[in-house]
Design a protein that fits this description.
The chain is mostly helical. The protein has six helices and no strands.
């Protein structure tokens, strides 16, 4: 598969993740009583919940800008680690957070081939260079 096709697939995954994270962040930033009640069940007050939404939104913006995408991805990975830990601590299913984490790592590997080659050197011979 050509490098161009690989990057396009990486950007498609990034856009899907962007929509998911944007929805999640805006739910945290909106005055939705159901979302605030859900946050209270896991121990977050309204201010903390909104701060988490701001952090999520800023990380997403960094992720979607090509120049800062790697930094944004690392911040989102850390964010999702916290989300997974929170779900597990409260015996809630963490499936969605784990799936987002996996997709985020795939998007990073496809958008930043150098990272993929650093982690898995054998992949260099699998990718045709344009």
């Amino acid at each position: 598969m050509s490098q161009k096709k690989i990057r396009i697939i990486g950007w498609i995954i990034s856009v899907v993740l962007g929509l998911l994270f944007a929805f999640s962040a805006f739910m945290k930033l909106s005055p939705d009583e159901a979302a605030l009640a859900q946050a209270a069940l896991v121990g977050f007050d309204e201010g903390t919940y909104r701060l988490i939404g701001v952090i999520e939104l800023l990380s997403l913006i960094l992720f979607l800008i090509p120049r800062t995408g790697l930094l944004g991805a690392l911040l989102l990975i850390a964010y999702l680690g916290g989300a997974i830990a929170t779900h597990l601590q409260h015996q809630d299913p963490a499936t969605m957070a784990v799936a987002a984490q996996v997709l985020l790592w795939i998007a990073m590997a496809l958008r930043y081939p150098v990272l993929l080659h650093q982690l898995f050197p054998a992949t260099q011979r699998l990718i045709k260079h344009d």
